[in-house]
Amino acid sequence: MMGEQKAHTLTLEAGGAAADFSKGSIFFVGTATVILRYAGFTILTDPNFLHAGDHVHLGYGLTAERLTNPALEIEQLPPLDFVVLSHYHGDHFDRIAEERLRKDVPVVTTEHAAGELKDKGFTATIALDTWDSVAVEKGGARVRVTSMPGRHGPPIVEKFLPPVMGSMLEFDPGAGRAALRLYITGDTLVFDDLNEIPKRYPDIDLGLFHLGGTTIMGILLTMDAEQGVEAVKIINPKKVIPIHYNDYEVFKSPLEDFRAAAEAAGLSERMIYLSHGETYEFEVPAARWQQGATP
User: Fold this and answer.
1) If both were cysteines, with which of 14, 47, 145, 269 could 97 make a disulfide (CB 3.0 to 4.6 Å apart)?
2) Total tally of structural domains belonging to the chain
3) 83 Cβ contact list (under 8 Å, min separation 6)
4) Is residue 3 scored above 60 in pLDDT?
5) pLDDT over 60 (residue 293)
6) How do strand 107-109 and strand 133-138 relate by DSSP bridges?
7) What residue numbers bound the domain in which 95 lies?
8) Of residues 210 and 139, which shows the higher confidence score?
């Protein structure tokens, strides 16, 4: 049984310019790392800045080699408002992030990851259990980040893996409705609890789907092409950006497989395919964010 859901509030210093709810962008750094800019917020996900040939430790003596380079170096990041971290694994929060990110940058993540990061000197972690949320306020804008269900492996190995969460980001212009609703899967497989998400959030604008088909010792730990398509059908976002693919040797399901599976399922028109270093720019209709507008 779930305990009482918790709601936190984080207030940031207002920026100089008024929040712009009319447009935003997503820059793909690589792996599950993106920079989201919208409504005056600059948000980083799952910071991974290792280079091709570097190795990450996955626990229990297991390592994985990175095959790609990030689209930018960590020193090139813009000023960040906060970080959303799906779980504490080396390909999601690597040693470069541990060494070079500001120790006071807020990090919204799992209880487990928050504890690990506190031990590394990070002072502004916000720990969420499933369905808990934090409202981040900045000037006249607010984004609510809610922890979504996630499972990083089949039950037989789940206890050996760090707990993982998906995230729902709802940007609130104060008009009584979300101007933009963005879902991030986290490193999850398809499992029953995902079906609760569209029941609670039937109108999702954009989804970032962690794919790759991570396979270690023959066990699937992240969604492959088939599961990715199934998850898109379950969650039902208007647009989908696949991320977390082709970056590590343990990623066994290439993006090309997902593209083919999505086409076969009639989902091609929803897909936005970004290469490392590419930006998706989006516009949000005025009816979603202007006071008094008719949705």
Assistant:
1) 47
2) 1
3) 43, 44, 45, 47, 101, 105, 106, 107, 108, 109
4) no
5) no
6) unpaired
7) 7-194+269-284
8) 210
